Amino acid sequence: MSFFLTNPSAVHTTCIVEHLDGDPLGVRMVTNPGSSAVVLAAPWPRRDALVAGAGSLRIAAYILAGSVELEGTSWAIYNGETINLGQRLGCHARDPSKAFVSSVFVLTSRDPLFGKGHVVGLQWLIDARIERTGRAHILRGARPSRPDLDAATWTRLERLLDDARHGLVALGCRLFEPIRPEATELREIERLAGPVGGDPTSGRDKEAAGSSAFTERMTGLHEGATLAGPIEPRRLYLVHRDVWAHAVAIDGNVTIRAGSEIRRSGYATMPQGIQLDRERLFASDIVVEIPNTDRWRLTRDINVSSLSSAAKFVTGSHVHAASWKPMP
After folding, report:
1. Does position 41 have pLDDT exceeding 50, yes or no?
2. Which of 55, 208, 232, 279 has the most CB atoms in a 10 Å sphere around its CB?
3. Is the overall model pTM greater than 0.90, yes or no?
């Protein structure tokens, strides 16, 4: 199934977000049925629970991130690799120079052949990507050396990192994303920054239906802004007629939480991508029918690209992103 991204310029991917400790902002794991990539994230104080959630996946690259006061950026990261994740994170926890760390992100693979040489290459790619985007200050004693791997291995590692990037975005980390939106995206942000008026089913709303995550207004976005993750999340809910849903929004990316209701019927005028994703959802095993209603209930969290797409996906109607309200 290929849920959620309806912008043709975006990469279509399925991200399954699992909350390993039951907290939507706690220990989280993202997998993709079509990839061996596994991404985990947790607040730094919950690193032991993250290691437990990773289970046998001990060979991994990792990013330690935290807010700092530096000229030109507000985030610092430390990027490393290890063959023993628990032991290595424990060492960092005892290192005074890592006192800035507030979050940890782990990138690994379910491929049984994933070994030391691969994770060293993965670390090198991560370092190069983050340096290219300029979203964070990289703390390192020495620049990682490029390992001597064959071309086929580098291709697989590039693919693994691309798959992991989608997981990082789902978890609120945009360290690999361009530091500024494109000009067309900036114009859309400026439009949405103004007062929202008119009928929610108007042509303007329909026109925005297929837009990417950047088509949602980002709080505090300005020219040159650095939107490195993790970004402060928002807990939201939506009520539309008989449908109720709740979600967590992080830097424009939205996770619709398990327990939310999805209306089965939908307008034939809905964007085709959303219609197809809804049909795939109802054919899957992650929703159950609510008897004697037109609603189904999510049994697992799902990730979507924007609040606008999430509102339409849940209701099957031309509902505006503003229908999501802050959770009391």
Report:
1. yes
2. 208
3. no
